[in-house]
Each structure stands twice: as structure tokens, then as C-alpha cells.
Design brief:
Blueprint: E1 6-7, H1 9-12, H2 15-29, H3 33-41, E2 44-45, H4 49-59, H5 80-85, E3 92-96, E4 99-102, E5 107-109, H6 113-116, H7 128-135, H8 149-162, H9 172-176, E6 184-189, H10 193-205, E7 222-228, H11 244-248, H12 254-262, E8 267-271, H13 276-285, E9 291-298, E10 301-302, E11 308-309, H14 312-324, E12 329-332, H15 345-349, E13 355-358, E14 371-375, H16 383-386, H17 394-409, H18 411-430, E15 436-442, E16 445-450, H19 453-465, E17 472-473, E18 483-485, H20 494-518
Parallel strand pairs: 7-8, 7-9, 9-12, 12-13
Antiparallel strand pairs: 1-2, 3-4, 4-5, 6-14, 10-11, 13-14, 15-16, 16-18, 17-18
Helix pairs in contact: 2-3, 7-17, 8-17, 13-14, 18-20, 19-20
């Protein structure tokens, strides 16, 4: 079961720092230091009994109209693509935990965690500490060369977690100064996952092209990026951000990518999913003659391609080949980080990546705050010439620390519920073999697989519009396996999981009956 914990700012941050904050606030505003001290020491319940009970109660009202619909004609000023995709009826009026009430007045389950942003749900009580920080005058905005104490504290704790260490482990100091490939020792603070991945790609390219006139390590060689193949052998399976370079790694801008290859600027080569022999052959092929592998970019659970999970044996074999050939590895955990005990899925796989992109879930939807964890061996970009000059926000870093504190206290529950959900979803799929082919993904990121795109779309449409369960079918990529994707908030309990799976089964049965009626 989920455990409530009680923490204050004084529990999460060093006393000497808070002494400075209190003295500074008092000097600026004239407020009584004793009152400010009480705010710093005020404990917040992260998962109080009333909040937990309300989650269970709301689950029984899923899909019901709880308030009158919001009648409004405001359409905003979107581009055509955003206008076509808009569903204002489900847009949030208010949210609590795993739920939100849409503009249509109905109760929705955020079964994709609002596109992976809220592992702890809406209005998570632990984030009350953010309001206390504001009362103390702790500013959010700062700059690269004035990274605040909270951000610096977070950086150390992230590196500790990425190396499987406690923050107070004396060996951490050695790690922070390590310059060895495969050892994560640095953090670059950014705002979006796209910028985090872009930073890693720049560091890979900096080994081939000079950023500032200095000779590059592999100057004159042609960089080759390896990405996971789609089912047709193409490069559309991945998703590593929305910058132009990252989009060329997933099949967008094909003319641009083709011309870049023709001009020997760089190449993008796909490698088959879960095929270690083919991977080794590709690495060997693209380290011959003028070519050099620039990097291998992958997710562990391919949530942008059917929820396919890369196997531990494949990734471990791929990493061995990469380390032997000086091929840096980017493990893209933008979607999987903060959804597991220990925070990172790559740790469970025993992997040693050179770059790890993280974000989305860690700040709990409160702030945009993604990061790239990197090995010091690839620390090659100058601060203002190549990197964005924001991403150091103090309150965003505090949101990270709050999220990490709660996950650390509830790791066993997270593992148990994730396993239960995946197993129950698999059992449901097995009971409906006429339309389902099984499940993919892992734990809270489970994908229900269908025999046809039409069935996947029909199921998701019914779940969204009739059942008010926010899930999605991937239909925008060619050759993508037809699946219904979910990514549940970590605060769901066993009864809530069981109710969700029951709703899914009811809709699968209804879909089968509709198909039989047509036939």
C-alpha cells in the first residue's frame, strides 16, 4: 500500500541554506524570522488519508457527470493540426490525483498521466512545499551562472541515483569527477526533453565537427547514428524530440536527411529490434572506411512505437559492442524515468549509458524541467555557445526533490502495482483472442495489443468518449503495431487497478459484440 510521509523544507534542504534564506527574506521584507522559520519547518503530508480515500471514492464515479458542462465557444488560435486534434470536452476544469473533471462536467481518469507529466497525479499534496518555498521568497528564475543551492543539491542527488548510490555516500565525490565513458557524472539543466536529447546529439557530433575551431576527435570521418528500426526496416520507430536533428532520427524531413547523407554530413541507420547479432553487424559495418558510429539512441520501452520493450539481453549485448567501439549510447528515459523504484529503468537493466535524458514526470507537471545526465568523457560543449541559458529554476528543482522523496518511500508499492496491472492486462487480452494479440510495454506503461488498427482505434475511442479513460491508439506512424497505450499514475491502488481492468474488459466485450453484429 502507499505510505504517507511527512516532510518539511527543513527535511529536504540543508539548514545552513535555509538560515540564509530566512535571514535574506527578513532583510528584504521586514518579516519576523521566527515566522519564516516556522514555514521552513512546517511539515506537509504527502499522501494524507483523506486524499487517499477520495481517490478510491472517485474511481467508483468514473465517467459520471459530476458538475454541469462548461458551455463556451472559445476556440483559441491554434494551427490547423492542433485544431483538428482538439477535444475540449475532456479539457480540465479541475484535477485531483489520478482524476480530472472535463469541460463536459464528467469525471476522467488520467490513464496516460497527462502525457507522462504527473506520476503523482494532479494537486499532489506534497507539492504544498512549493508554496512554502514561495512564502520564503525562494525565487524560481535564475541563470546558468547562478545555479541555486536547490538545483545544485538536485544535481548531486540525480547523479547519486543514476549510479545506484545514496546521496551521502562518500564515493559520490569520486563519481562527480569521473571522466570515464559509461559513468554518469554531470547534469545539464534544460526545460524540455527535446532540448535534453539535442544536447546529447550535439556532444556526439562535436566528436566529428569542431564547435569552436579546435580539432575534433574524429574529424574527417562521417558520423553514423544508430536508431531502432520499425517493422519495415525504416527509421520511424523512435522518438527523441522535436528539434530538426532529432526528428531526422525518426524519419521526418526525409529529403533533408537524404541530402545530409549524400553530402556525407551524417547518416541515420536503423537496427532491428531485439536482434543482437544484427546490431553487432551494423556497428561493424559503420565503423569501416570513412564511417564512424556517432551514437546509439534508444528508449527501453518504445512508447512511440507500439509500447515494444527492448529486452535486457539485447541491450546488454548492444552496450558491450558500443563500449568496445567507442560508440556513445543515449538512453532516452524522458518517458520512463520516475515511474520505477530506483527512479531509472536503465538501472534495473544493468546498463551503463553515456547519456540519459530525463524529465516530464520528475517535476510532477508543476514546471517544465528536463535534464541530460552525461558522462564527463563527453563534456565538450561550451555553456553559452551551444547550450540553452535556462533550465536552472529553483522551484522546479524542488519539485524534483519532492517527487523523488515520495517515490523512494513507496518503491515496493510501485513495483507491486505495476506488476499487477501488466499481468491483469495480459490476462484480459488472452480472454479476447479474436481482437487482442497480447500486451507490450512494462508495468504502468502497459500497451494492449490488437489484431487490427481499426479495433485499436475503436477501443480507444470508446474508452475515451464513453468510459472517460484517457488512453490513445498510435496511428500516426506507418507499420506501427496497433496498440492502446496507457501510463498510469503511480498513486493508483489495487482496487483502482482492478476497476480499470474491469472497465477495459467490458469495452473489449462490447467491441466484440459490435463486430459480431456487423458480421
Amino acid at each position: 500500500m502507499l505510505h504517507n510521509i511527512r516532510r518539511s523544507l527543513a527535511d529536504l534542504l540543508a539548514r545552513a541554506y535555509l538560515d540564509g534564506v530566512i535571514a535574506s527574506r527578513s532583510a528584504l521584507t521586514g518579516e519576523d524570522p521566527a515566522v519564516l522559520r516556522a514555514i521552513a519547518e512546517e511539515k506537509a503530508d504527502f499522501y494524507p488519508e483523506a486524499f487517499a480515500a477520495r481517490q478510491e471514492s472517485l474511481m467508483s464515479h468514473l465517467g459520471e457527470t459530476l458538475v454541469p458542462a462548461f458551455q463556451d465557444t472559445e476556440n483559441g488560435a491554434p494551427t490547423d493540426s492542433y485544431r483538428a486534434a482538439q477535444h475540449s470536452s475532456a479539457a480540465p476544469l479541475s484535477g485531483l490525483g489520478a482524476f480530472r473533471i472535463g469541460e463536459d462536467g464528467r469525471l476522467y481518469l488520467a490513464a496516460k498521466s497527462e502525457h507522462y507529466h504527473i506520476p503523482l497525479g494532479h494537486s499532489f499534496p506534497g507539492y504544498a512545499l512549493l508554496e512554502n518555498a514561495k512564502k520564503l521568497g525562494i525565487p524560481n528564475a535564475t541563470h546558468n551562472n547562478t545555479r541555486g543551492f536547490i538545483t545544485r543539491t538536485l544535481e548531486r542527488r540525480l547523479i547519486a541515483a543514476a549510479n545506484g548510490m545514496k546521496p551521502d555516500d562518500p564515493a559520490l565525490e569520486t563519481i562527480l569527477h569521473e571522466k570515464k565513458p559509461g559513468t554518469l557524472s554531470c547534469v545539464i539543466n534544460l526545460e524540455t526533453g527535446s532540448l535534453a536529447v539535442e544536447a546529447a546529439l550535439k556532444m556526439m557530433l562535436a566528436r566529428f565537427y569542431s564547435l569552436d575551431g579546435k580539432k575534433a576527435l574524429y574529424e574527417g570521418r562521417i558520423p553514423v547514428f544508430l536508431v531502432m528500426a520499425d517493422n519495415a526496416g525504416g527509421i520511424t520507430a523512435g522518438y527523441h524530440g522535436t528539434t530538426v536533428l532529432a526528428q531526422t532520427l525518426r524519419g521526418l524531413w526525409p529529403g533533408f536527411t537524404e541530402k545530409a547523407g549524400q553530402m556525407d554530413l551524417y547518416k541515420v541507420i536503423s537496427v532491428p529490434i531485439n536482434d543482437p547479432e544484427a546490431f553487432a553487424a551494423a556497428v561493424h559495418r559503420w565503423n569501416e572506411g570513412p564511417y564512424k558510429t556517432a551514437g546509439f539512441c534508444h528508449e527501453i520501452v518504445m512508447m512511440n512505437y507500439g509500447g515494444i520493450r527492448l529486452s535486457e539481453s539485447f541491450l546488454q549485448a548492444a552496450y558491450r559492442v558500443c563500449h568496445e567501439t567507442d560508440t556513445p549510447v543515449l538512453c532516452d528515459e524522458i518517458q520512463s524515468c520516475a515511474w520505477y523504484q530506483g527512479l531509472f529503468l536503465f538501472r534495473r537493466y544493468g546498463l551503463t549509458p553515456d547519456f540519459v535524458s530525463i524529465g516530464k514526470g520528475f517535476p510532477g507537471g508543476c514546471y517544465p524541467a528536463s535534464k541530460i545526465l552525461t558522462s564527463g568523457a563527453f563534456d565538450s560543449l561550451n555553456q553559452f555557445g551551444a547550450l540553452v541559458t535556462n533550465g536552472q529554476e529553483e522551484l522546479a528543482s524542488l519539485a524534483y526533490l519532492i517527487t523523488m522523496e515520495f517515490i523512494a518511500a513507496n518503491g515496493e508499492h510501485i513495483e507491486q502495482i505495476g506488476r499487477r496491472y501488466h499481468e491483469k492486462a495480459a490476462a484480459v487480452a488472452a480472454r479476447h483472442p479474436r481482437i487482442c494479440t497480447g500486451v507490450e510495454g512494462d508495468a504502468h506503461m502497459t500497451a494492449l495489443c490488437f489484431d487490427s488498427v481499426e479495433d485499436a482505434v475503436a477501443f480507444c475511442s470508446a474508452m475515451n468518449h464513453s468510459r472517460c479513460v484517457d488512453i490513445s491508439a498510435q496511428t500516426y506512424k506507418p507499420n506501427c503495431p496497433p496498440v492502446a497505450l496507457t501510463k498510469l499514475p503511480l498513486i493508483l491502488t489495487e482496487p483502482m487497478i482492478d476497476r480499470l481492468v474491469a472497465v477495459m474488459e467490458e469495452e473489449l466485450t462490447a467491441l466484440e459484440q459490435r463486430k459480431e453484429g456487423v458480421q
